[in-house]
Amino acid sequence: MPPSTTTTTAATTLTTQAAELGTLLAHHPLAVWAIGMLAAALLGLAGLAALRCVQRHRPVLPPVPPMRAHGTLLAAMGVSACTWVLAGAAMADLAASGRPGGPWGALDDALAAGLQVQTPTAVLQLFSALTHLGDTGVLTALTATVTLVLWQRQQRLLATGWLVAMAGNGALTRVLKNLFERVRPEHLHGIAQAEGFSFPSGHSSASMVAYAMLAYLATRQLTRPWHAPAVATAGVLIFTTGWSRAVLQVHYASDVLAGWLLGGTWMLCTVLIIESLRGWRTPAPGRARA
Questions:
Q1: Helix (H) or strand (E) run with residue 186 in it
Q2: Which H helix or E strand runs over 181?
């Protein structure tokens, strides 16, 4: 069999399997939600455990001198740039494969079509309420509240980083929506409405930044017993918001995934810059890092 024929057959098989997966997911929206929340919480806890392992084996360092602090900042910026290159490539590939004929396109269409004809009204109403976790109004109020609290606690750097994370993600999402210009799936149930372009999902990216940043702030401002619950809760809220957009059929699954990718990358780069500005040093026992 010629290589081109083999490649075509493999691509066709992958597309078919993706469509079957989309149909399966559409049959069980509540089960997917439950499994996804658990997986997101466990993933966050695994990341927290890995971070603690690194911190436990890191030597105690004095405050970083100015010249070394500049080097640390430049290194963080370099890592951030590389991260953006990888994330950009992944997002472009996701957008391309989400077109008709691609594997993500097959999954997107099958999931949206299945949810459209099978999802009970009660389930749609449930996710219509949950999707407000990523609404602009809710996150704007959250942004203002957290900024005020951090400012009152004299945490100027964290407050600034939080503001940059939230505002920057919103700007990036708008730019990418206008760049890709993907049309939203049909959502004829009338329970939820959405306007504008679809890729990436703004609710998904915003909830990723907001709740992941809150978990990061919790590890910096709260005592250790609060860290794991904060991280697990963030994972649950992030997945819930993203999945609600797919269940309500106002976004394709690939829109949601792209939103998580965008928000996660922006949040990670913001934290890297914050940490480089704070300096890599270990605080005195019992004291939270600013």
A1: none
A2: none
How confident is the model over 5-58, as pLDDT tens digits? Answer: 555 666 677 788 888 899 999 999 999 999 999 999 999 999 899 888 877 765
- Cβ count within 10 A of residue 48: 17
Place of tokens 């590389």: 82
Tokens of 184: 């939203």
Assign 191 to helix, strand or coil: coil
CA distances from 284 to 61, 179, 198, 211, 233 (A): 11, 48, 48, 28, 28
Beta carbons within 10 angstroms of residue 129's beta carbon: 10
Complete DSSP assignment for 52-109: HHHHHTSPP-PPPPHHHHHHHHHHHHHHHHHHHHHHHHHHHHHHHHTSTTSHHHHHHH
For the whole model, what pTM was predicted?
0.86
Alpha-carbon gap, residue 198 to 255, rounded angstroms: 6
At 197 the three-state DSSP class reads coil
Q: Residue 86 and residue 259: Cα distance in Å, rounded? A: 15
Count of Cβ atoms closer than 10 Å to residue 205 Cβ: 30
Task: Report yes or no: 165 and 201 within 8 Å, Cβ to Cβ.
Answer: no
Tell me if 236 sits within 8 A of 37, measured CB to CB. Answer: yes
pLDDT digits 0-9 by tens, 71-110: 565 666 666 677 767 766 777 777 776 566 678 888 999 9
Over residues 183-193, the pLDDT tens digits come to: 898 877 888 88
